[in-house]
Specification:
This protein is an alpha+beta fold. The chain has a domain of 46 residues: Double Stranded RNA Binding Domain. It contains 1 helix and 3 strands. Strands 1-2-3 form a 3-stranded antiparallel sheet, with helices on one face. The longest helix has 21 residues.
Length: 72
Amino acid sequence: MKKYLVVIEKTATGYSAYSPDLEGCIATGKTRDEVEREMQEAIEFHLEGIARNGDPIPEPRTYSRYVEIPLG
């Protein structure tokens, strides 16, 4: 099992998501739950296509963290 970072952003009409490790793999949804569900399906579909083409499955390589900045 592999874990891919998914970035979820609020938009004017709902939410969008993408994975930096999977170029071109994106999803949208009206709610956070919907975009998370859609992105899960998009990643599965994306990886199936890669495998079907005989290409290697990309390794997860990105991570995230928050940086605290003191204000004032």
